[in-house]
């Protein structure tokens, strides 16, 4: 089984209180799944270890598998000898989605097999894989002459957190390319004309959209082909969630903020990352709107909500951007699997989007800038497709 993992070594996850005990009461038994839709959506995610996934992420993936027959691929960087994520998923699938048999006996939950879990190769092999790609494309010749570890935005930095994430996300993408070659039935267009979609998600969040909302979003807003007709002019190659966090300050007046500023660049070129975390001051990018760049995270959230209802009050429409993620992004499969774009691509021109602490550009910006050049990527934030990073 294959999957992919998040190297963000954050402390969290297992102590988060989730209201899962009575969850099985709200779901249909697995026996009723025969008539369930089978959307052409595949979820992929990366996480550090068996214990790094949030309870909300596990609940979400099980709903996708057991109610909608949707596959997921998770890759872990480390495996926990004392705690098996595979076993936890299997047991929860039994508990939530299988009816009690006579005497309390349980059948095997087939839907648990739709969630594939595997581990990345070793650290050295991951570096070698990225290096071989860079040699093949000539990127190695573009690195500054200084030592590799000191070069900003260097995907080969062995210790940098963002560089590690880039390598793992690209390992995941290459693995999915292999899977599509062997199991093209998953991603090729089917007779029902559904658009094959790959949904990239973070696996450490506290809340996710309902799976049915993701299905509806992909059906409504994804470009079905590269035919540039008038209807496709209103659709997108990729749709990002509106990732939120609860404010950590001003506790007397708590509010929600737009969280993922690191990955978000508005059109034509306004990066929402905080001033204190940017290498280039706000307004310093070519074409950057300094007024929008100076928005607080709360103001950014309000801006997306306002832009989303600008044309139709009461109905949220996608807000076109240059780059975004939000913890969950839907891609037309052939776009995300594009031959000539990668998460671990080295492009010195992207140094302008470097974070001050990490000295790296967000991996999502790296991929999206390449796709802009290759296919004129159309990407947007869907204001009511909500994820939640922090509870407090």
CATH architecture annotation = Alpha-Beta Complex
What is the alpha-carbon Rg in Å? Answer: 21 Å
Low-confidence stretches: 1-36, 188-192
Q: What shape does the CA trace take?
A: globular
CATH class: Alpha Beta
**Helix segment tally:** 9
Number of domains: 1
Strand proportion, as a percent range, falls in 5-15%
Structural class by secondary-structure content: alpha/beta
List SSEs in N-to-C order: EHEHEHHEHEEEEHHEEHHE
Instruction: State the helicity in percent bands.
Output: 25-40%
Q: Separation of termini?
A: 36 Å
CATH level 4 superfamily: Spore Coat Polysaccharide Biosynthesis Protein SpsA, Chain A
Mean pLDDT: 85
Report the biggest beta sheet as strand number plus sense, adding barrel if it closes: 9 strands, mixed
Task: Give the strand tally.
Answer: 11
Brief digest:
With 392 residues, the protein is of the alpha/beta class.
Spell out the key features of this protein.
alpha/beta; Spore Coat Polysaccharide Biosynthesis Protein SpsA, Chain A; nine-stranded mixed beta sheet; two-stranded antiparallel sheet; 9 helices; disordered N terminus
Descriptive overview:
Helix content is 28%, strand content 15%. It is α/β, with parallel strands linked by helices and 392 residues long. The protein has one domain: Spore Coat Polysaccharide Biosynthesis Protein SpsA, Chain A (Alpha-Beta Complex), CATH 3.90.550.10. The strands form 2 sheets. Strands 1, 2, 3, 4, 5, 6, 9, 10 and 11 form a 9-stranded mixed beta sheet that branches. It has a two-stranded antiparallel ribbon with strand order 7-8. The longest helix is centred in the middle third of the chain and has 22 residues, at 161-182. The two termini are 36 Å apart. The model is unreliable at 1-36 and 188-192 (pLDDT under 50).
